[in-house]
Model the fold of this input.
Amino acid sequence: MKKVVFVIFLTSGILGVFVQCCSDILLHWNLKSFEISFVNMDGSPISADSTVVDTLVCNLSLEQVFVAQNHNKLSNTFVNSSYALSCPEPGEEGMQNKVLEINITSNEAFSNFSTGEELRSICSFQGMSYTDFLEKVNGYGIDYNYSISINSKPTQGVQRNFKIRFTLADGQILEKNSQEIVWY
Done:
């Protein structure tokens, strides 16, 4: 009888190591908020309130929150998770509340674009297509900084700001206005 109890305890302990290790890992992440700053093509900040660069780069610093979606009911309270061999990284399964769309607009007319009209057609997204950029933002490979480059100077050199809006799968909208800048 002692052997049976010992085998059951040993087996539950071994299984508990593999099950317990991942019960506290937050496998998904969501976008909580973001900040916008202007940088040059080399990544150095544009600190002045005006610029003459050919391409204006909007650096997006994302604030993320890790969230759990798995609740493991087989956890073993007698086994410390530090004995686990390997567990996934936080956020490894990507974004839970996916970004469906990213919009960028100007509060002033921008060349042939009206005030508030979508500027995506003159933007590049971290050197990739818009669709690939959305996949990168939504997926694994958590990066806290992304860039959207506006590749065409406005014909009007007036003070303006840009609004960037993230539309999420649950209908939530996160948006921010950039600092004001004169770009000529």
About this structure: The first strand starts at residue 28 and ends at 39. DSSP finds two helices and ten strands in the chain. The first helix runs from residue 2 to 20.
